[in-house]
Amino acid sequence: MSASREREVDAAPYAYRYAPERTALVVIDMQRDFIEPGGFGAALGNDVGTLSSIVPRVAALLAHARALGLLVVHTRESHLPDLSDCPPAKRQRGNAALRIGDAGPMGRILVRGEPGNQILPEVAPLESELVIDKPGKGAFYATGLDAMLRERGISHLLLAGVTTEVCVQTTMREANDRGYECLLVEDAAASYFPAFHEATLAMIRAQGGIVGWTAPLAALLAA
Ligand code: C5J
């Protein structure tokens, strides 16, 4: 690692330092199922409009990460067509208009390969980037993500995507327990519930950064 390439971000609860060659950007679940009408998010009764505002900032973050040469990882919450990787508890919970596996306006809900499961074109992966299909909320559960990061020498993660308090936070906590130094990009993540977004940021950086750091995109770009 060249110390001269290390960056220092004006973050909370204190400055976050990272070396691009040991850092990955992990963009969580920017898929149509959560962000567009007719998908899983809408079927659960959410106002999906609250998520779409972050798309330009996620795109800018991706451009920045690519310019710095960071490893870029995209995730999709998705299940096999036979739903063998979907616990019945997950499928049956709640009172959704459409459940996982049901046919909706964008194809079968949260099923791999369906139109609704695709990442939005504005933030689509490049050929060279990793795409992780995950059956859980966290990106480390039942995936090869940890091994892929370790074999590339990654120790630091920048996180973005949706939704802040569900898949983003779960992934960040899983990563923290595995020893990664994590920073959540505050305005490149969103929740259907703005208060949950803010609460998640507060939880992460409380107690001296018990889960990690948070910073706005501008602070990352300025670093
Ligand atoms: C949810 C996610 N909210 N990507 N998934 O069910 O946060």
Any ligands, ions or cofactors bound here, and which? dicarbonimidic diamide
End-to-end Cα distance: 18 Å
Silhouette: globular
User: Sheet bearing the most strands, described?
Assistant: 6 strands, parallel
Structural class: alpha/beta
Share of helix, binned: 25-40%
Number of DSSP helical runs = 9
* Weakly predicted, low-confidence segments: none
Order of adjacent strands in the largest pleated sheet: 7-4-3-8-9-10
Order of helices and strands: EEEHHHHEHEEEHEHEHEH
Strand runs, count: 10
Rg over alpha carbons = 17 Å
Residue share in β-strands:
15-25%
Helices and strands, with pairings:
Blueprint: E1 7-9, E2 16-18, E3 23-28, H1 32-35, H2 40-43, H3 49-52, H4 55-68, E4 71-77, H5 88-92, E5 103-104, E6 107-108, E7 130-134, H6 145-151, E8 156-162, H7 164-177, E9 181-190, H8 194-209, E10 213-215, H9 217-222
Parallel strand pairs: 3-4, 3-8, 4-7, 8-9, 9-10
Antiparallel strand pairs: 1-2, 5-6
The structure holds dicarbonimidic diamide.
